[in-house]
Amino acid sequence: MLSVTQLLLLMLCICHSAIARARLDDALKAEAVCAQPQVSPSSSSGATVRLSHRYGPCSPAPSTDEPTITELLQSDQLRANYVQRKFSAGKNGTEPSDLTVPTTLGSALGTLQYVITVGIGSPVVIQTMMVDTANDVSWVYCRSSNGSTLFDPSKSTTYAPFSCTAPECTQLGTRGNGCANSECQYNVDYAAVANSTGTYGSDTLTLTSSETVTSFQFGCRENEGVIAGKTDGIMGLGGDVQSLVSQTAATYGQAFSYCFPPTNASSGFLTLGAPSSMEGFVSTPMFRWGTAPTFYGVLLQDIAVDGNLLNIPPSVFSDRSVMSAGTIISRLPPPAYAALSTAFKAGMTQYTAAPPRNILDTCFDFTGLTSITIPSITLVFDGGVAVDLDGNGILIAGCLAFAAANTPDGVPSIIGNVQQRTIEVLLDVGQSVVGFRRGAC
């Protein structure tokens, strides 16, 4: 008799072809023209802003500083280390020595690929901010040489720094950085010596022409640093109290969704608030970590390639997985990755194998080809929830966009942003569910 999971997969294979088609254009390579965005957020009651790849032509501040694939993969390893370090530190109070990698702020944030445009202050100053689910404290550059449009708190009639004794300052906890001139200071540690420091205050945040957030709490960074891509700061979308999601919970509920576009030549969206209907979504229970409240987790049960379950033992996924917007490549437990790589290679025998590229070791040579046919990949989550990956969410630079996680026991694996492309991912803390809606952007 078929299990519930197998029945669901069989239904998916009937509805969707087991063969995924993929374009050979490198998904990270900028195209000359921004395609007309096909944005279809599910929520009509929340606040929706356009979300774009920061190196593509759809970016509000496109950059010519796009990293090479090698540089990007190196930065991605730093990002994965950063996420892992948060859990290791929360678990035993120390950081593993192999994860304290000296770097610069630019390198540590090199994998934050998606940006939104918002307004801060009165009068409104337009800001291009990278979104990050692995951080809670939002911040922008203030009165520095960085960024495309700078916010100057002295010119905003609604800006107010927090005093050192204000509750908003106290709740920063380990993110607090003491007091300067009677004003609250913050510190966000990104990777070893890389951090963002400055004054913590509040001002009006303009999301859309009709949606504003009064007394939005954020950091005003005045120390120099480089963030490639001409962006103005970070919008923290984590689950702790300082994040934009938590700050707007009274208005939109503690829920938000996003959709990463298939390539950097099109746009997606970020929506604050849960959809009015779950039609088109499948959902799985959300897992939270008390020692790392920033993160949103899910439980993988299995993986299918071309509709065939790999039958990975449940114990392999027992540490769960983080849904990450800032990590590019998904990191799977080694036994799960080995099974996926073997099955995927078996479906790619018509193509020549290529040498590994940095952390990617399941690679192919597509020289001279204009299109390819690749096996489909389905992630199966707790409750038998099966999510087919888009063709653009399987390969990167000619390689399978997964890697083995080099993590100690008790540290979760990571679902990266490549695998989330074109899927509206709903993170609903209030209902404790993670939803997926395919083909949303």
Structural features:
441 residues, six-stranded mixed beta barrel, four-stranded mixed sheet, 7 helices, signal
Strands of the biggest beta sheet: in what spatial order?
Answer: 3-4-11-5-10-9
- Fraction in helix: 10-25%
For the largest beta-sheet, the strand count, sense and barrel status come to:
6 strands, mixed, barrel
SS content category: alpha+beta
DSSP helical segment count? 7
Summed over residues and divided by their number, the pLDDT gives a mean of 82
Shape: globular
Radius of gyration: 21 Å
Please, could you describe this protein's structure?
- With 441 residues, this protein is of the alpha+beta class.
- It contains seven helices and 31 strands.
- It has a six-stranded mixed barrel with strand order 3-4-11-5-10-9. The chain has a four-stranded mixed beta sheet with strand order 15-16-19-29. It has a four-stranded antiparallel beta sheet with strand order 18-17-24-25, sandwiched between helices.
- It starts with a helix and ends with a strand.
- The N terminus is likely disordered.
- It comes from Lolium multiflorum (Italian ryegrass).
- One of its GO terms (biological process) is proteolysis.
Brief overview:
This is Peptidase A1 domain-containing protein. InterPro entries: Aspartic_peptidase_A1, PEPTIDASE_A1, Peptidase_aspartic_dom_sf, TAXi_C, TAXi_N. 15% of the residues lie in helices and 34% in strands.
In terms of topology, how is this protein built?
Layout (H helix, E strand, L loop, with lengths): L3 H12 L3 E5 L23 E7 L15 H24 L12 H4 L5 E7 L4 E8 L6 E3 L18 E2 L5 H4 L5 E5 L2 E9 L2 E13 L5 E10 L11 E4 L7 H4 L1 H4 L2 E5 L7 E6 L9 E4 L1 E3 L2 E7 L1 E6 L2 E2 L11 E3 L6 E3 L1 H13 L5 E3 L8 E3 L5 E5 L1 E5 L3 E4 L6 E2 L2 E2 L1 E3 L8 E3 L8 E5 L4 E5 L4
Parallel strand pairs: 4-11, 5-10, 19-29, 20-28
Antiparallel strand pairs: 1-23, 2-3, 2-13, 3-4, 3-9, 5-11, 6-9, 7-8, 8-9, 9-10, 12-13, 12-30, 14-31, 15-16, 16-19, 17-18, 17-24, 21-22, 24-25, 26-27, 30-31
